[in-house]
Amino acid sequence: MNNANTLYQYGTLAMLVPGLFEGTLPLKELLKHGDTGIGTGDGLDGELVILDGVAYQIDGQGNVNELDGDFTVPFADVHFASFEHLANVHALVKMEDLEEKVSSELDWNNVFYSVRAHGTFKSVKTRSVHKQSKPYPTLVECAHEQNEFEKEDVEGTVIGYYSPQLFNGPSVGGFHLHFLADDKSVGGHLLDFEMVSGDIKVQKLDELVQKLPSSNDDFMKHDFSNDDIAGAIGEAE
């Protein structure tokens, strides 16, 4: 039986800060631990959205590609969906409004939870990056080269996670949200949106399973004491 309260995290965001981008876990293994989630690919190859057990990559050109099980990831968050309805949207809700509404209605500041909002969006703004080659740049350097995409009047899904501040580093403290259009015309890491109708669902995740890439030499030998992890994540995310 799948644990609906468990967040499975492969790798950490802190690993990405110095450029440890090598994909070390195939999707077919990741999906054993969840049917919903977000992440990135080998070499920081785009932004990932996983919905209903299907994984999609939004590449650096903004194309949405369905992925096979051999695609590898350096970092991902997944869980088995068992969302509860929180609210309906009947008027314009901006990204910051949604985050504030969810936070204010839930007393979950010190646990993980997932947010899924589906509906009609007046506008969305996302970003993604091209796959990087070795020697890998840093996460901040990649963020400066990101590509941004905008779309108006689109149906789609916001999916992502809230992580408590005490876990800033392994994850993004606060909200980390991705988007995928129903027609697969746009997606990626969310920068902003205006939602005009739909529904918001949430799922508490008070158990964390963390898997680290212990077979990867670059990870095992890296000295993270020299990295400004919190500063880099704040600038890049």
TrEMBL record:
Catalysed reaction, written as an equation: (2S)-2-acetolactate + H(+) = (R)-acetoin + CO2
Keywords: Acetoin biosynthesis, Decarboxylase, Lyase
Gene3D superfamilies hit by this protein: Hypothetical protein, similar to alpha- acetolactate decarboxylase, domain 2
Coiled-coil boundaries: none
Gene Ontology terms, MF aspect: acetolactate decarboxylase activity
Claim: Calcium is one of the keywords in the record: no
Pfam families named among the record's database cross-references: AAL_decarboxy
SUPFAM superfamilies hit by this protein: AF0104/ALDC/Ptd012-like
EC number: 4.1.1.5
A single GO BP: acetoin biosynthetic process
Functional pathway: Polyol metabolism; (R,R)-butane-2,3-diol biosynthesis; (R,R)-butane-2,3-diol from pyruvate: step 2/3
Domain of life (superkingdom): Bacteria
Similarity section: Belongs to the alpha-acetolactate decarboxylase family.
Protein name, entry field: Alpha-acetolactate decarboxylase
